[in-house]
Design goal:
With 137 residues, this protein is mainly α. It has four helices and no strands.
Amino acid sequence: MKEVALRAAKFYFVGALGIVVQLAALAFLKPALDPHYLWATALAVEFAILHNFLWHEFWTWSDRPSFGNDRLRRLWRFHISNGLLSLVGNVLLMRFLVGTLGLHYLLANALAIASLAVANFFLSELYVFRYLIRRPN
């Protein structure tokens, strides 16, 4: 149980860094793509996904290393689970929070990120990083 708690703490620390990456990317991209804040959101999420994957691969789940093609498969699993949930969840929540409720796009994005955090941890723990990948010979 301690191992899962420590891993969760690392996951949320990386996630906090990812929030900074995502919000900075959104703040930069939104004016350039205005009025298309949803496209800016999608691109900002992708920056955060790649940032977070690298930290998780080499720190959060460093006890479950991967090598070569296994790392690429893991990146694929991260994209189709955490990435897809984050992308679809962020875009839908942004549409509701900004488009319907009229919240500021940065506040709305922070709320969207926080609402998806727990599901993303369990997807990572149980699906993306679940296998102990063998070392190459």
